[in-house]
Every structure is written in C-alpha cells, then in structure tokens.
Amino acid sequence: MLESVITQIxxxxxxxxxxxxxxxxxxxxxxxxxxxxxxxxxxxxGAVCAVLxxxxxxxxxxxxxxxxxxIGDFYTTIVRGVPDVLFILFFPLAFEKTVEFxxxxxxxxxxxLAVATGWPPCDAAQWYLRTGDYLTMAxxxxxxxxxxxxxxxxxxxxxxVPKGQLEAASAYGFTPKQVFWRFRVRQMWIYALPGLSNVxxxxxxxxxxxxxxxxxxxxxxxxxxxxxxxxxxxGLVHPDWRWKYYFxxxxxxxxxxxxxxxxxxxxxxxxxxxxxxxxxx
Length: 281
Fold this sequence. Notes:
Blueprint: H1 2-13, H2 15-24, H3 27-34, H4 36-62, H5 66-78, H6 84-107, H7 110-115, H8 131-160, H9 163-171, H10 176-206, H11 218-226, E1 229-231, E2 235-238, H12 242-272
Antiparallel strand pairs: 1-2
Helix pairs in contact: 1-2, 3-11, 4-5, 4-8, 4-10, 6-8, 8-10, 9-10, 10-12, 11-12
C-alpha cells in the first residue's frame, strides 16, 4: 500500500518528492512515530498517579490527626524541592535494587552471598527490566513529583469551597467523612482545574526525560535520526539534521499544549455547571 502511494507521488510530483516520502516512511522513521505512544502513556499515566497522590496529600494536609497532617506537609514541601529528573533517575533504580535485594535473600545460597563480589550475587536474583517496566516506574515517578504540586493546588481549592455549604451538609446529618468526600471534594474541582492544568503542562514537558530510563521515546529517536548518517558503501547520507527533528518535537509539544488547553476549558465548563456565580456590583 505504502509503495503504491510512493509510486503515485513520484509520478505526480517527481523523483525528489517520492524519495523524500520514501525516506520519512522508512523503518526507523516509523519507529519514531510509533514511539509517540510512550510519551502519551507516560503523560496520562503520570497524570492519573499525580491526581491520586495529590488527593491523598491534600487529604492528609486537611486531617485533624497531627501525624497525618505532618506527613502531608512533609510530602508537599520536600518533594516539590527535588528536581524531577532526580526522581525519574532515583526511583526506578532504587526500586530495581530493592527487588533484587529481596530476590537475593530468597533465591541465592548463603555461599554465593558470602563470596559475591558484584551485584546481584547470583543470576536468579537478576531482574531484567523491559520497556513496560521502566514506563510503569516512570509514571509512578512523575506521579510522585507532580502529585506534590497537585496536592497543594487541591488543598487550596478545598479551602475555597464555601464553608456555608459544608456547615449545611453537617446540619443535615452527614458525617465529617461524608462532608469531605461528597461535598468538599466534589465542589473543589471548579477551583482546582486552573492550577491542575499548569501541573499537567509541567508533567507533559517532563515526559521528554523518558530516554534517561532507556526508553526509546520521541526525543531519543530524534537524536538518532538527526545525527550525521554515514555508511562506508554509500558515503554521507545526510549531515547533522538534529535541529530539524527537534523542531518537529517543538511543534509536537505546542500541538499537545493547544489540545490540552481546549480539554481543560471543556472540563472547566463542565465543572461549572450548576455552580452559583456571584456578580460584583
């Protein structure tokens, strides 16, 4: 099918256009296009984890039980101060070593543990991570980092919910737990969505770091395809074209930003339905 399209383009627009189309649809370029799924999976998965961590952190900050409140304050304060690239590098590596440590305790003999000079001490404790494993840990890492930002946003949005409505719910006999989940959490989204949209934008940009986890994402493929391509039998196929491929990524992330803005505008309109608007005199 693709070959016939290339043939038609060559007949209509000439050999140069056909050759260009054949080049950008070869196997390596198709792998580059397919790697977009890793960026999208990491962005969506990280966003889901960030909302879950954010809700948990905000609930802890709201807790009247001081140890829970301290944990929530510690999470939102400390995690926000650590660069996200360190979490993306540290968490998967630490988790991998922890799993191998547990496996070594159960699968390696005491003799191999005593004489081992490397890690892991035996082959049975070696955990070979695949792309899916790294991608899952990347989603969790992004969720931990940006969940701290989301927790602060959600906490502020919860404080913005009119207290009169919460007091009315309590007067109708709802328990404090029901007031929190059925009224405060449900109504805080109208106040939280603008801040959460900013958190989403930051998380989306952070997906460009997936290549640090040996995931062949769009950034890594752009560097590979754009580098000077030389074959001994052919010579120089093309010089350094990385700026062209990075420009394509530039346009891709701008497109994702525009789509995200439209999506959050839709969510804002949906969350605003039924909300009473206060008009200023």
